[in-house]
Known about the structure:
single chain; seven-stranded parallel beta sheet; 15 strands; globular
Amino acid sequence: MNIAIAGGSGYVGSALTGYLEQMGHHIYILTRNSKNKKNSENITFIEWMNPGSKPEYELPPVDAFINLAGSSIAQRWTEQNKADILNSRIDSTREIIRIFQASSHKPEVLVSASAVAYYGMSNEAEFTEESPKGEPSFLQDVSVRWENEAEKAEELGIRVVKARMGLVLQAFIPPLVSAYKMFGGGTIGSGKQWFSWIHLRDAVEMLLFAATNKEIKGALNITAPQPAQMETLGREIAKVTGRPHWISVPSFVIEKMLGEMSVMILGGQKVIPQKSMDHGFSFHFPTLQPALINILKE
């Protein structure tokens, strides 16, 4: 397959690119700066959305387009950073739709990232792809507006998958693991908040699964089948690292450290990847402890 990726140099995008290359697909990576990028037999870099040079570019015919582009949410949520987080996602998705409109050979599918924040926060409710959007918040608003832009591809006859990403385990846990290794691990906040996680390998394979399975459209939760509460996550990290789980970090401390972004740790959702399970996706890491062992014992 010929597959285009926006956001191919990000954490998930880089892993996805490596996986697709290994599978023998040709990947076109849309990047804002192609000067330090080198094409290879299976990877072609295409410069786009560079306000400095305003390059003329054309996307070759592709079978699938995977959109992971967007400014990192792992930064303090100042008003400027919040604007960047939202606008980077809206602007890139609008440009993708413009590319589709101008192309005589449209892809069969657009897999566009979103977030489980779509469902809002809850310590009690369980969410599947059929669940409605939750109470308004910054990340929920970003997710809804991001999906609304991606859905415009449907008007062009393109199948759209809204990939609602959970927290990728490898990207989320390093600060927690460091705390445990320094004997500073323990309960964060109430510990009851749900942690809807996904191992990077499963996230990458699920994105390709969504692109190649024609029966999948609309929302798709990119999460493991067994989410865990934060207290459980901490205790499992303690087991794998051989360190104690003993310090309690109150919510107000996290709020003071992270500001509004603290909701990513203190809030939570219990999200189930029902659609993937219904369509027979095979998880390498459906449960937390084997996933942690795989990551921490490498």
